[in-house]
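Blackboard transcription, Thursday session:
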Amino acid sequence: DGGITQSPKYLFRKEGQNVTLSCEQNLNHDAMYWYRQDPGQGLRLIYYSQIVNDFQKGDIAEGYSVSREKKESFPLTVTSAQKNPTAFYLCASSIDPGLASDEQFFGPGTRLTVL
Amino acid sequence: QKEVEQNSGPLSVPEGAIASLNCTYSDRGSQSFFWYRQYSGKSPELIMFIYSNGDKEDGRFTAQLNKASQYVSLLIRDSQPSDSATYLCAVNPSSGGGADGLTFGKGTHLIIQP
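(Written on the board underneath:)
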């Protein structure tokens, strides 16, 4: 059963802690993305990766870090430098971002709350 | 700054009527356009994409694109209560062929009244 999985579904973080959100896909997609969604807002791009061992900053990368050591995995670390991390985090993947018809498939999301 | 604008709503439509959702974008070179549906607390799911001027139909859904006016719309015919959700418009920017992710609007909250 192909798809994108994210874990955990809910995550609580104390101020000053770093936390890592998991994203795994078995769709054999080259590109992976991390978005953040705040209430009543659209999705904002944090980081993206087109191939293994390469990733680029999105619009709101400050306070976040990623790695892409395997094609299937694209974990996101929310560091203590991120001033307002409470949000809904969405991971996505796509086959070939160079195609106009390239669809992004989304995982179920992780809801992060800072205590 | 690439921008995608949507009326946040809520847009209330009687069951069985046509729901019309609109989106405008600032980047004239944008290549393709996507409509996602997002239920509360869930992740977005793709409804349709369009990249040629004109209409594209898929079941009860029709996407319309006018690149000269820089707007894209989604029509939902025979609206059902299950269509009640937030609809996100997303644009594939002209630079990088979309490799740097889609630009999303804030979404329109649609309510279908039984």
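Lecturer's comment: The radius of gyration of chain A is 13 Å.
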